[in-house]
Amino acid sequence: PVPAGGGPRPASPARASGPQARGPAPAGNRPLTAAEQAVRQRVLEEQRRVEAQRQREERERQALMVRSAAEEARRREEEERREAEEAERRAAEDAVRARVEAADAARRAAEEALHGAADDEPAAPVPPAAPAAPAQAAPVQASAAPAQA
Questions:
Q1: Could you give the CA distance from residue 145 to residue 139 in angstroms, rounded to a whole number?
Q2: How do residues 80-90 score in pLDDT, each as one tens digit?
Q3: Which letter, b or e, does each residue of 3-23 get, where b requires 16 or more Cβ atoms within 10 Å of its Cβ?
Q4: CA–CA distances in Å: residue 73 to residues 9, 19, 68, 80, 131
Q5: Residue 14 contacts residue 31 (beta carbons within 8 Å)
């Protein structure tokens, strides 16, 4: 009889007698031929390669997630550090601005006190001095005005 594989097979003493010699039988009941063993080996190796590739890709995905999480954490830390530096810089600028404004206010107050007293002294005599001449003339005019009336 012709074996189920369709071609001549090398004879083996295990197949020479019994139910195995009668044709197709389940693979578990007879030894595999060299071709069947080679096919089975190739399939197993392909399955191992596919599984190894799947595991590599999974490890890469996990590593990427870990890197992404670490990079995100670093980015957040950097952003928080920049915000803290910016807040510190603004606080320093505000403190400088407050000191400058306080110094300007003190300078203006000192100038007003200095110039205000100096301005008041010349300003006070000058206006009475200028109206003093007309004031003297005013009583003359006042006395002249009743005369005309």
A1: 9
A2: 999 999 999 99
A3: eeeeeeeeeeeebeeeeeeee
A4: 66, 69, 8, 10, 81
A5: yes
**Tens-place pLDDT, residues 111-140:** 888 887 665 555 555 555 555 555 555 555
Q: What is the pTM of this model?
A: 0.35
CA distance 97 to 103: 10
- Cα–Cα–Cα angle for 84, 88, 94, nearest 5°? 145
Query: Where do we find the tokens 């870990």?
Result: 66
Single-letter residue type at 134: P
The residue assigned the tokens 């083996």 is 12
Tokens encoding 115:
């110039």
Q: Are 22 and 44 in contact (CB under 8 A)?
A: no
Q: DSSP character for 5?
A: T
What is the DSSP annotation of 45-89?
A: HHHHHHHHHHHHHHHHHHHHHHHHHHHHHHHHHHHHHHHHHHHHH
